[in-house]
Amino acid sequence: MGVGSKLRFCDVMTSLVPSEGILIRFSPHKGPLKLSFDLHNRHTYSEQETSAGRGYAQYTATIGVLTMDGKLLGRGVVQSEFRSARDLFDRISGGAGPRGVKAVAPTGIERIVMEVPEGVDEVSVLGEKLSVVTLAGANLFTAAQRPIAVVSNFSAEYTAAPAKTSPAATRKRVARAPTKR
């Protein structure tokens, strides 16, 4: 939970297996559904490193939204730089650090919006890669089951599918229909 924003944050893990991602289930919908969320880079904050002038980091995280059978619906990218605590989007509560915050914090923000086709009732958000440039050099991370980004503020806009009528309910309605005399 974000200390300032009160948003819930969730780590995005790298994987090629949809069931290992952040699973989002939808109600049946008519036509495409518009899925949107905020994508943030994941920074490990150190007051000591920042105070010593060694806290700089530049991040580029790439994620994918996939159907449960592995079809890619779209990608999202967030780029940000960290130089000081002012560059953090928020702090996350529940840690052992000062003021009860975690060392991991979201930085940067990119609103991701994509369509989910009719008939798709579940998707997975998975990490693809993370590029990090620090004063120590550059690294590219793609290893499975590594957190590479943070997401928040999910929403879905859609038109609900009409309720399906069971054959038994149809028979009941027909049986109760008025008859001519």
Description of the molecule:
The protein is mainly beta. The protein has one domain (10-176). Helices cover 8% and strands 50% of the residues. The protein has two helices and nine strands; from the N terminus they run βββαββββββα. It has helices spanning 47-51, 167-176; strands spanning 10-13, 22-25, 29-44, 57-67, 72-82, 104-116, 122-134, 137-141, 147-160. The strands form two sheets. Strands 2, 4, 5, 7 and 8 form a five-stranded antiparallel sheet that branches. It starts with 9 loop residues before the first strand and ends in a 5-residue tail after the last helix.
General shape: elongated
Number of domains: 1
Order of helices and strands: EEEHEEEEEEH
Helical content band: under 10%
| Mean pLDDT figure | 88
Distance between the termini: 67 Å
Radius of gyration based on Cα positions: 22 Å
